[in-house]
Design brief:
By secondary structure, this protein is mainly alpha-helical. The chain contains 5 helices and 2 strands. A hairpin with a 2-residue loop joins strand 1 and strand 2.
Length: 92
């Protein structure tokens, strides 16, 4: 039996996907890891952050665990909510 012929011009995405879309970049993952650590150090829950920022608790959880990406505006709001400068949360 002959093997099916594949179309060599058809592009294939090699970027992995999460439940909410594309995998966050390395910088966003560094931010998420550092943010989660600093949030806990400050004694704040995701629910408390929700009240301070207006962001959904489920979004905060998904970004902290690397399941969704985050934009720079939300990074700034979250860093303000825990009282840590944004640049410090981006340092590996």
């Amino acid at each position: 039996m002959a093997k099916p012929v594949t179309n060599p011009t058809k592009s294939v995405s090699v970027r992995a996907k999460t439940r909410a879309g594309t995998v966050p970049s390395e910088a966003r993952l560094i931010f998420a890891r550092n943010y989660k650590r600093e949030r806990k150090k400050a004694g704040l829950t995701q629910e408390a952050i929700r009240h301070k920022t207006g962001l959904c608790q489920s979004f905060i959880s998904e970004f902290e665990n690397g399941h969704t990406s985050i934009n720079i505006d939300n990074m700034a709001a979250l860093s303000d909510a825990i009282g840590v400068p944004l640049w410090k949360l981006l340092v590996p």
